[in-house]
Fold:
Amino acid sequence: MNEQEWYETVAQLSCHKELGKKLPKALYLHRSALSETAPGFFSWIHQQATNSGIPEQHWNIVRLHKDCFKVTLLYYPDFYDEAYPSLHFSYGLDFASEKIKPTDFTSSTNPPILHRKEHMIPPSDPNHADFCEITREGEAAGLYENTRIIGFRNSWETLIKDKGYELLDGRLFRRAAIGLAEPEVQHTVDRHKTALSRDSLSSPMKTLANNGYLKGQYTVFDYGCGHGDDLSELQAHGITASGWDPNWRPEGEKTEGDLVNFGYVINVIEDLEERVDAVLGAWRLTGKLLVVSAMIASEQHIRKFKPFKDGVLTSRNTFQKYFSQTELQIFIEQILDEEPIPVASGIFYIFKDKDEEQLYLANKQRRRPQWKQLVHKSRSTSNKKRLLEENRQLLENYWQRCLELGRLPTADEFEESKLLAEQIGSPKQAFNLLKGEADIQALDQAAKERTEDLQVYFALQQFNKKRIYKHMPDPLKRDIKAFFGDYKTAVAEARELLFSLAEPNLIDQMCGLAHQQLPASILNDSHSLIIHSRFINDLPPPLRIYAGCATQLFSETDGVDLVKIHIRSGKLTLMTYEGFAIQPIPMLRERVKINLRQRTVDFFDYGYGDYDPQPLYWKSRLIDASFPDYDKQQSFDKRLSGLNIPELAEGHGPSLENLTALLRINHGLTIKGYRFFKAQSAIAPS
Structure:
């Protein structure tokens, strides 16, 4: 039998409605069912097992792989005697590489177990009816609600007890019915085991660094600092930083800090009252900004663990309280009576300094201008030329600051203003000196962009009506006067822009415009626009507001790879991929769909949940030359396109496993990195 015949035979068996335990990538059958249904196929597998030296009595279940030229032979010695038999031996036969992988589970304290045995035997088997009844009992007890946590004996037995049942002689009985009282939960968790050692800044600290807060201008206090890895890194950069941890740094003093990091603390405290007190304690120490973070997980992932109080117990006897993004936001808001700002998945900023909060929100919308070199040739008078030449670097710095602000800076907005006054004169004199030398159109463009940035900022403030400020920082006041004239005009323009988003036709028009202007994007006509998160602030203002409203409900786009703007439905989807920066076909791991009309957030986990990871094809359409792998990705996509694989033109395309099989079978190729290589030819065992 060759590889092609293998795939055809397994596909035919998978279509049998009443036979086989079917999984996405495999089909399980008892040897009796296989020999009855496909005697020739069974004889061939039997011969391969004999040739490989596998004892006849050491396998009774056959796992037929759908995605590779391979079979796994399994031995459950108590298949007919136990309701949920344990695995003793496993033998993987890879026919393509002619390799065998044996595994012995006989000494394991937590071996894999088998469920739904009725699917693996033929209906003619006298045990079929009993096996069906065993499965019905488990379903009625709710044991199959999350099949990802029932594969091993320990978790299975724990689940049975948690559901209020006891397993006696292979059958399920209510604990109360057999006189067993419900066990009293008395457990002490090992909190000290939750602290992790790391070689780089933690995720919350990275957000502070990315937003310009770790340049030394603020003091930092790390509440629950663990081993102190973040503190060591901050102190190495000359930042005044201290910390306290009840287990690893109890001698540390709880001191006030401009910035307080409360990183992944509340999720490891099993007592709710203590959890609340800790949040309040961190807030009392905060001068300007508190960063609160906690573990976020889907229900599918949480069900993998044993429930304990309002969280779970991990295999390391630590407590974890997993939150959803919305749940964490509400938890913080109720305790502090402050509105937290989502920054990333499971990370929120809570500003005690409201001026600082306004500057943060405004700067989020600021686009950074490219450096514009001054023209070095001059047709000016000799005195002007002398001033330009003698003070060129000073004027370069001044001009760059003008472009950053979109207007002339005041004295306190330019670090070298004193030197500028001594060498040139007033800021206006410096600007007049630059006329004819600098690109004035660049300043006009910077002013236009800054005006749009502020429109986006004020529109988002209108969307989030709960955030009201009594004071306004001086830089914002100057911007409003320069670009709008007064605050009332600025708010009116922003409100008009915000309300315009209710028109799907405008969103459609703006998506078309963005597709023309952005360096990379995918436009699905009248349906959606997909872009990399790097290009969010390059969108037209209406779409930036659209995306900004959505992220106010969930988090920032930091750490997110792709953003999908739905044109008609009022939704926005954030997608995170494993290996986006380094893989030619990255895999979808997390998808968050935000519904602006209903103000709801749906989280889809492709790592632990019920969804298989999806490959992203044609990545070159979503990146530009600023990405390090752009040239390699273009070459890879061109080569893949040239193979004319029909499945790639249908929807999301095939799974990565199916693509690998198609390349190997139909083209004799395999993928390594960004290149295609000849695959080793399939060798049928003798």
